[in-house]
Amino acid sequence: MIPEWVLRWVALSLLAFITFIFLVLGAAVLSGLTNELFLGFLNMTWPPADSASEFEIESRRELSFSILNYGITALGTAWVASFAYLVVMRNQQKQAEQQLSLERLRLTTELDEQILEVLASEAVVDFDTDGNMKRIRLVSVLDRNTEWRPTTERDWRYREGERTVPFVQSSSVVGPDAEVGLTALHHYLAWVRRIARANETGVLTEQDVLLFWRWIIIACYRNRYTFLCDIFYKDDMQDLVRLADQIVLTGQNHGSGRDFVKYLRGIGDPAMIALLSEEARAIIAALEETPATA
After folding, report:
1. Which of 2, 52, 229, 256 is deepest in the core (most CB within 10 A)?
2. How far is CA 179 from CA 123, 149, 170, 216, 230, in A?
3. Are 11 and 85 in contact (CB under 8 A)?
4. What's this model's pTM, rounded to 2 decimal places?
């Protein structure tokens, strides 16, 4: 299939060429040089012989006139077709851009709602001093006050039908035996994948991805990347690494992007930072160490 930009270039070139020919013909008519122009075309299409009968001369004129007449008609048709194609293509492009803008607005709204629902889910199981189980929202253990374990032995537990796993290294929010539900972690990873696919297909721009940096950084804190890799495996976490790399590269000229880099430099997971591109690691290393604020 011929690329759209090639068709556009051909249509513009053809339109310019035919317009130039019509300008030449118009100038010839206005200057009274139509006969000379026609004679030149006649001599070019059918050079006269040194000795020709009146019949040959008349036939030559009629044929050349027919060629010129049909040629002008064909050029006019081609000009109209090229112009119409460019107009239609422009309208289609504007409609596609408007549709893409609406889709981008709808998707960003859905992504906001999706991540807020994941964070608000009572996916954390904690225990009081008497051993009684209580549910806590996932967002409560995603700040810097809770350090996750660097690895997990996949010591699955089952709480109210949901598979959970211990995750606390140290925390001022929950106890050391607290567990996190895998369903919420799966939903979070699905949210990351959705952003990555939308960005790859052009639905979300780099600036759109930058809007979600606060919810991407929570999986980049120290030990959390390696913890998630133990559950989902490293290949499943590639989208998270790619988005983090993109935010570092595209966000270095924006306040939010610089904040993202500060978090990575201060409390980022070294294992994940090592997987970033060389350019992204250089940006992180070059940043003056500034304490990140939650």
Report:
1. 229
2. 8, 11, 13, 21, 15
3. yes
4. 0.68
pLDDT digits (tens, 9 = 90+) for 149-193: 988 878 888 888 889 999 999 999 999 999 999 999 999 999 999
Reading the block at residue 98, the tokens are 């408007």
Closest CA to 269 of 221, 216, 214, 213: 221
Separation CA 64–CA 43 (nearest Å): 9
- DSSP bridge pairs for 49: none
SS3 content of the chain, % helix, strand, coil (to 5): 65, 10, 25
Summarize pLDDT for 180-238 with one digit per residue, the tens. Answer: 999 999 999 999 999 999 999 888 888 889 989 999 999 999 999 999 998 888 888 99
In the numeric block, the tokens 């130039």 are attached to 20
Could you report the per-residue pLDDT of 11-44, keeping only the tens digit for each? 788 878 888 877 777 776 666 566 566 666 666 6
Q: Please spell the DSSP secondary structure of 48-85, one letter per residue.
A: PPSS--HHHHHHHHHHHHHHHHHHHHHHHHHHHHHHHH
In DSSP terms, which residues pair with 136 in a beta bridge? Answer: 124
Contact 119, 138 (CB under 8 A): yes
DSSP state of 166: E
For residue 268, give the DSSP letter: B
User: Sign of the CA dihedral 236, 237, 242, 243?
Assistant: positive
Which of 261, 224, 219 is closest to 147 using CA atoms?
224
Rounded to 10°, the helix 278-286/238-250 angle is: 60
Q: Alpha-carbon distance 164 to 184, whole Å? A: 10
Which has more pLDDT, 84 or 272?
272
